[in-house]
Amino acid sequence: MTIDFDLILPDVGEYGNYQKLMVWFVFLPGMIPCGFHAYNQLFMATQPKFRCLIPDLDLADRNFTEEFIRNASIPFVMNKDGRWNFSSCSMYSRNYSVEEDLTVLLQASGNLSSSDIPTVPCQAGWKFQNNDQETTTVVTEWELVCDKDFYPTMALVLFGISGLIGNWIFGYIQDSMGRRPAFFIYLLIESIFAIATAFAPTFGIWLACRIGVGFTVPAIMGTPFVMAIELVGPSWRTHVALLANVVYSCTLCLLGVVVWLVRDWRQMSLATSLPFLAFFFYWWVLPESPRWLLSQNRLAEAEVEIRKMARINKRSLPAGYFNQFKTNVEEAGDDMDSSRSQPTYGALDLVKTPNMARKTAIVTFIWFTVTSVYVGLSYYAPALGGNEYLNFLLAGVAELPTYFFLWPTMDRWGRRWTLCFSMILGGVACLATLSFQDDYVVMLVLYCVGKFGISSAFVVLPLMASELYPTVVRGIGISISGVAGMLGPIFIPLINYLGTESLMVLPLMIMGGLMVAGGLCALTLPETLHQHLPQTLEEGELFGS
Q1: What residue stretches are annotated with the Major facilitator superfamily (MFS) profile domain (predicted)?
Q2: CATH superfamily of this structure's domain 1-46+141-327
């Protein structure tokens, strides 16, 4: 038998000064590293426009215009989308070092391109056309183009795979060791590999560092979120969940500003990593979750945290307040074999009973859909045209109106109907892009509507899942659902790499269909609004049966 923390919260305060201090100054800032490290790799590995380097023409003292060099040395080829453009990976087989030949080329002026001239792959490397001299990426430093242009995509795929594995492992860590030690383990691993990224001498070492960082994403966000939800009363969970997602959206906006200001990828890596070393000072202020302590029957430690909470909330608890709970636990323990150890829980506990198995399957499918589409749309933001930094910033800004919609609806409509409406709205917007591929304005509007819908679902789902899973397997349940969700982002970079302009609509069709299906599945879940969090597996099975 475990003590229901929801029965204690009315006496100590469901959202008093203690919870406000912890949420605003500890838990919410603790989510920022996830947003930075989930997407800074996109800008570290940005591929600018490029062409073959022609040493005899690109020398500074020759003063040849870029237009002349392209016409004289670069053939026209048909792109995957069926359009003709200058080649990025081939050049004319010409001798550009002979002055007489250059004179002929200059006299020919703009009529230099010819299909009769043999072409060869780039012989002396590539010339990258950055908008400014300060912009450097791993692509430009290690020339990851042409026959190596899959490397950045491979890095994103491996980053996603490492996150999938890490999320699974850290789910067990936070449920077995506790929320507090788990957070600092994530932070230590992430800091070491993120800082080491800036000093990588080769692509292989850079990739290894990114895999190390990916191992902690998104686990490092999940633990502060779970702790915040577990610390407040049922009526304040919506408030806290919205605050968490507002912070995450603002984090993406802040990242857009940072990567715009810091264009060198090594400095960018440090700028998005070093500030988070300050979070190690949380060691002296970050509490262990009282709800988790109670679920483990560690009553003495839980009493210390709860009394501290009551004191800061200016609530008074009688000296023998916890005796009633301890007596109940001891009486329940007398009915058990005294030699029996504290039970341990695993993934199989989520599917042993029919109702828990059904809820786990539905939540996991919806999580897969939400994560895939959210990450997919975020990846596509730089490809909308114009300034990629501004596009990413606007993609974060587009999420902010979401919370004005969610604030009243989650407490009026409930979690289930809000999740359903958000996913179907976003899904229809993604499906509608099929009819407006050539209209940039309409595509942009539909993109924003899709981002609005998926951002709403991204807020509601973790909150609803944390309210559905029992405390004893909450971390495991959320981690398993999160692991399934992270399968989608692993394949999205591959689709983006292989797709042509016409095929790029196919992922939007798939994502739109998944969102509509997920929205309909959400209606089969029980409503969790203002319900007590289930503590044990038995309570979890009964909830919504």
Answers
A1: 102-530
A2: MFS general substrate transporter like domains (1.20.1250.20)
